[in-house]
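Input for the complex:
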Amino acid sequence: MMDDDENTSGAADPESAVLCLRDAAVAVGGRRLWSGVDLTVRAGEFVAVLGPNGVGKSTMIKVLLGSLPAAAGEVTVLGQRPGAAGDRIGYLPQRRNFDGSLRIRGVDVVRLGLDGDRWGVPLPFSRRFSSRQRTADERVREVIELVGATAYAHRPIGECSGGEQQRLLIAQALVRRPRLLLLDEPLDSLDLPNQAGVAALIHRICERERVAVVMVAHDVNPILSYLDRVVYIVSGGAASGPAAEVITSDTLTRLYGTPVEVLRAADGRLVVVGGPEAPALHSDRHTHSHSDRHGALR
Amino acid sequence: MNPGFTWNIVTDFQWMWSVPSMVNAFRGGFVVAIMAGVVGWFMVLRKQSFAGHSIAVTGFPGAAAAVYFGLSATLGYFGFCIGSALVIALFSRGGDSGAGDRAHSSALIAIVQAFALALGALFLSLYGGFLDSTSSFLFGDFLGITSTDVLTLTVVAAVVLACTAVLGRRLLFASVDPAVAAARGVPVRGMNLVFLVLLGATVAEVSKFTGSLLVFALLVMPAATAQVLTARPGFSLLITAVIGVLVTWVGLTWAYFGNQATGFTITSLAFGCYVVAFAVRFLRAQLSDARSTLEHAEAVA
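Predicted:
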């Protein structure tokens, strides 16, 4: 929120914006999932796509990646149509934990993010005489250090914990220095300390690397204090804008159709608290449906 | 027919290599072991062992049909293995998503396998009585390998290995992390198709050595052993190839002097390697645990 003023002033300008949606809508199988979404994201901004499950938050990511066409409206990603700027976008799909039997090191997974889409194989011992190899090695080491995964990057990734895997995957998404990072529920299935840690890491990346982040989440609290902008999607409606304007008791209560309160904690942080029936909104999760209920608008 | 093993290694090997078919077996075995190791390494990583097994089983009716129609068994192996690989690749849903798709794929693979075995039974009965070569189709026959076979094996292996090398990183990416690979523009489904065809060709070759039932000796075991020992991809592939060649050569020698089927000797040796690798990893883990406990104790004291 450091440069909120600069970012919110002025009309949406698709040229300088990393990401621009105008009156966008999406339909899957003929069913309109959401519509009327306006959103402009600039470099270094942290944006959350929030809402209960099953309303099509992940389809927003698919639209931005270009794998699903928008049913209406205009979508521009890095000044181009979605899908045309693939190599400047880092993507972290909804996980997906690597299972324990996968015998590939974390550093290999990060490396695949750098050159996994190239043909051929690196020649053995090529790092001795190829400066490109050394540059690549250096970049992988650097990005692993950035996410704080140096200690376990050389272990098989299947043996790493959920939080460690998530950090390595963020490194994988970042390794090509993307200008836009699309994260689909990166805090899902992490315990509370790891949620806080990964959220702080993403915020740090926004600030330091000037990467714009669009993050899908169903629990706003771990990221609330870092957000510049939010898009709230609920079935039938959407609201977007600066976090301070959208995350209010009135707006959320109207969107959810159930009492939702936004409280200010003693240390100044905002906390979103749902009414007693709020968890029911989230009961249509297909994975981890019981384990992470606590994650719903607490 | 074979002389006994005399423990005089030099004379033993001179004796063994004076038989032309044994020399061919050693040459062919080398080629097959390397190809099976590399392709099998990806198969183990992609968790497509079941598909590989079913493709191998379809080699049996393929060989039986080819012999029934008076064609070479090799042709039958290749035709049926690659054909079933295509069926599995084209009719299973993309391998990159949920458990439902995987269940659908594994059911499809099982159907292909069952139908293949039924066809095998059909061709055996059409042939009238028990086909002499049934046992070699199922358990391998290394003495039947001719110089022409070795040439065919080498050409196919060169093509398969070249394709695998060209796919290289893309195949690894699509195998380890299909969702991100797809977002980066790697055609994950296309990779699956090409890989299964390569697997079909590999399995057809290995079948000649170990028979349809025991292809996994060279396809899965060296790769699984290497993946137990290391998580570095390049090193792991190297270990796979070395183990594959070693068990094949030692297995051939054992089969020659011990009058055993290669299917049995090679498989037993590969299994032995796997067990040893597991023991090594277990001991290594115990050792590093003990060391860290010791260090911890020292740090506390």
